Amino acid sequence: MSRAQLCALPAQRLLPGFIRAIDCQDALDALDEGTGTGDPLAGLTPEQLEYIRQLIIAIYEGRAVAASYNVFIVCIIAVLAVLHWREQKRDKQKWTAIQQVSSGRTATENSQIDGSGTSTPSSSSSTTIFPQTTHIKSPEDEVDVDLERLPLLASSQPAKHFQPNRVTNRLRSWLLYQPPPIPIINRVLPSIGTTLFILSWLALNIFIQFYRLPMKWSFFFIFADKAGFLFIVNLPLLYLLSAKNQPLRRLTGYSYEALNIFHRRVGEWMCFVAVVHFISMLLYQFVIAEDWLLASQSPKAYFTHPLILFGIGTFVSYELLFFTSLGSFRQRWYELFLASHVILQVAALGFLWGHFYTSRPYVIIALAIFLLDRLVWRMSIKRVAMEMDLTVLDGETYLVSGDWDVHPGANGVLAGWEPTDHVFLTVPALGRSHALQAHPFTIASAAPGKGVEREEGGRHAWFSLLIRAQFGNFPGGFTRQLLEHAKTHKRVEVQLDGPYGSPHVLSMLRASNHVILVAGGSGIAVTFPLVWALLHEAASQTDSEEDEDKQVPPSSKQKKARGRKVHMLWVTHSHWHQKWIPKEQLDDLVALGLDLVVPPPTMDAGRPEVHGIVGQWIQEAEGDSSVLVSGPDGLNRVVRNVAAGAVRQGKNVRIAVEKFGW
């Protein structure tokens, strides 16, 4: 808005015109020039002119401070990226060391093979599938052990390479600890470390809101204006966190689900400051502002002004986005949540464009992120269509599966995937509305890798999605309809968007010589591919080394993957759930060194002593341990707090939580 345009405004619209100016100096120059007869400033007293001058300066100073918010965000991301890079470098060094140790151990085992071609018996693996007791490591040692009477943590000293510090351990343990859910409303809380990070981010926003804010009622308009501008500067971060193809995942190492927690908090905060902005503007208009500053005190004239109408449209759109994003709403009406999220976001950005001129650069950035992620990348580059098999496993669970040769130059999932990656599934055959829906599911089968040149003989991918129908949805729910379709059809045409994921978890597990994985129910879709990758890559390395020694008999290949000790606990609710993963595949992993525990189903024997099993595994570790848990909130919290307790006692434990849900 130019100075001439500002001076041409009616006197009653003086203040709105000035605050819509792009440049503070333009507004001040217009204030100085527009004092002649017939100008909109004519008739104002010197005190009123000085008040307007101070108001304009304060408004633009506040906006300048708020505009620096994204500079702080970029700096924080840069620090997290550096820390992640250092962690990746250390993990790679540890992985290399473990591989070297594994090679040395294999050579030692080979030297023990006698002339008859037989090898020394090994106890590197064990399995207790469908056990009568909670956990049995070996029949001769632990048949009569009562886990409830065992100490949770060992009294042995940590490994020499890890020098514990009592203060550091207590701090790390405290940050890892996850408090119980909030009573009455039963809201799940994240770990203390995550909570502190979010609170620090909130403190930054609050600091910007109140920094150099004149604490006078006559300047209350500045408080309302800064709240609105604080909403605007958070737009790029909100849309960046919601994107599936985002640099934050690779820069920080956090999974999409972990970043989604922060995304929800950003959205909640923005909706809150939108309420503050809306109510504050109403208070200023009808209670605080003096008559000479207002166009009209009539509510009708105020609420029918185009500027206000655009603002109300923006406010309603984002508040509806908040309510439709609540967990209770998503679980009951997930399809409606998906559709409303797209429609309301586009509408909200359009309304904001018309409401606040200064917001337009931020709107352009947010819209560019949204369109690039949704249309360019996901709809074209990463999306593939193919026919898949449907297999009903029980009354509420089924598999969507297929297989193909891996081609690195292919699009999306056809080029392969990594453990813990997920895809978005669309099934147009279910109806016209479902053709526009994309639902996320973790890939439950072993990963063939991606971006790797084809080996001699080629690589083959076996792809499967383990899906449980959500009967709490309305009858037209996607998972429920697909289950009904699977009962009458063996194959279906699908569209897959992906894969998406983070290599951080796999890198963490590779860098540890003692790995613990805990799955609750369908959380096996996360842990199974990881165990498969860890044990088979170790076995493959040993194969290539042993092939050079012609004296090594084929029988020794059953105990090759010994570079690390791998434990897995799989807690299921029903005996039908234990058939989700074929027993032959589990036996293969056990033969490669997996210590597998599958307690009796919880519907028959109650919840197992997860804290005792995991605590004992950490206690037995010689050196560092890496723990991964994927399951419902209660199981995740138990395992996280067991790891936190072990850290407090001096154990070097790292933990990752892969939460699944809608």
TrEMBL record:
Topological type in the membrane: Multi-pass membrane protein
Coiled coil regions, renumbered to chain: none
Chain segments annotated as transmembrane: 67-85, 188-211, 217-241, 269-287, 307-326, 333-353, 359-377, 515-535
Domain annotation FAD-binding FR-type: ranges: 374-506
Record flagged with keyword Transit peptide: no
Keywords of the record: Glycoprotein, Ion transport, Membrane, Transmembrane, Transmembrane helix, Transport
Annotated region (Disordered), positions in chain: 106-133, 542-564
Record-linked InterPro entries: FAD-bd_8, FAD-bd_FR_type, Fe3_Rdtase_TM_dom, Ferric/Cupric_Reductase, FNR_nucleotide-bd
Location (main, coarse): membrane
Skewed-composition ranges (Low complexity): 115-128
Localization: Membrane
A Pfam family it matches: Ferric_reduct
Gene3D superfamilies reported for this sequence: Nucleotide-binding domain of ferredoxin-NADP reductase (FNR) module
Name of the protein: FAD-binding FR-type domain-containing protein
Natural source organism: Podospora pseudopauciseta
